[in-house]
Amino acid sequence: MIDAINPTVKTIGILAASILLGLTFRWEINLIVALLCVFFLLTSSRTNPATLLKAMLPIALISLSYFFTGWLFSSEQAQFAASNTAAVSGGGRDVVNGLTLGTRILSFAMLGISYSLTTDAKELVASFIQQAKMPMKMGYAVLTAINLTSLIQREHENSKLALQVRNIPVKPFDTKPLFTMLVRMIRWSERLSLAMESKGFSEDRVMLLQMTVKRRDILFAVGLPAMIVALGIIFV
Amino acid sequence: MNKNKLTLRDYLLMALISVLFGIIYLLAVYAGTALTTVLTPMGLGILGYEPFYGIWFMAAIITTYLIRKPVVGIVTEVIAALIEVLLGNMFGVMVLVSAFIQGVGVELPFTFTKYEKYSYKMTILSAFSATLLSFLWTGFRSNYLAMDWRIVAAIFVVRLLSSLFFTGYLSKLICDKLDEAGILNQNLDTGEVNE
């Protein structure tokens, strides 16, 4: 369902929804939004269970860490707000505060993975170029970098290996291989741009992949934020 | 100030450096996750990623130093975020907003000197403004008002220290070494195709 939404419109819809969600402070709303995102992900043909599980583990950990922070280190203002909105007292107010913070991060992250795991890279860049007027050069630079990701990773490993064979130790955040790689990236950008321009690359390039905005896209971009506003009114 | 338009080579350099730093970011994410796991039972898990926060500003400051044109820092952060999103970042579209704000933060001090000064003073100011703007944004996103002020203060101080080291000091050191190696401006200025 969410796969078919135009990527630019999906960006606007989810961005607006995220900002509106940031203005609400109720765990019930956060939980409803998170569950809606689970529905989006389960109905998407682009999400496989293994990837979803891998993405969910750090989300669960971060949500849990926010829950503990909200619970053990809540502000007086938050306790006052919790006592106004829930029939809780004493330590229960802290738990509600923790729950609100934990589910807040959970719902942001669920909206985030509903976007990133259901959006195709080529479609997103094509849509940004056609609907959001992103410069063609920027779009193709992003695609080039994505396609070269594994090569850059391999080159980074080679740079570390080159130092190790000279008996120079390499620590996890060492700048020596980073320096070598930065020199390489400067050279690559020069050669790649020459190669692309020699093949006639310009802003006038015609794209085979044509992205369009349909009525259902608008419905999604308006409907999702509207639903959060409605939930905000219901749970006041 | 260099008012030439960004060229294809500039965009490619920004994108390639973003991917390169993506590898470093991944290491920082692993380290941050491990630290978060250790600190969570004490309620301090929120501080887990803070010691590595300055690493997220490095790509923007390095490309600003290398290319020396307006909006390079912002565009680099946005490209880096776009690549992160397309590779499955869990905060999705919110990363684009964070990236834009961080890019503005990194670039702000350079606008006052018309992109002509690249001293330690400038990179340290850049680290400070990036920390401040990113702190305001994450404050809204994570609702810092609901937390004890001492935790919020700790977040700011740890992030600032990280930023001063990685963005203010280390990035400048790397760029100076690139300059000494003789591969900077003369290389980037030759053969530009301006449309």
UniProtKB/TrEMBL annotation, chain A:
Signal peptide: none annotated. It is found in: Membrane. One of its GO terms (cellular component) is plasma membrane. The chain crosses the membrane at residues 12-43, 55-73, 218-235. It is a multi-pass membrane protein. Its main location: membrane. It holds the Pfam family CbiQ. This is Energy-coupling factor transporter transmembrane protein EcfT. It comes from Alkalibacterium subtropicum. The lineage of its organism: Bacteria, Bacillati, Bacillota, Bacilli, Lactobacillales.
From TrEMBL, chain B:
It comes from the Bacteria. The chain crosses the membrane at residues 12-31, 51-67, 79-102, 122-140, 152-170. Keywords: Membrane, Transmembrane, Transmembrane helix. This is Energy-coupling factor transport system substrate-specific component.
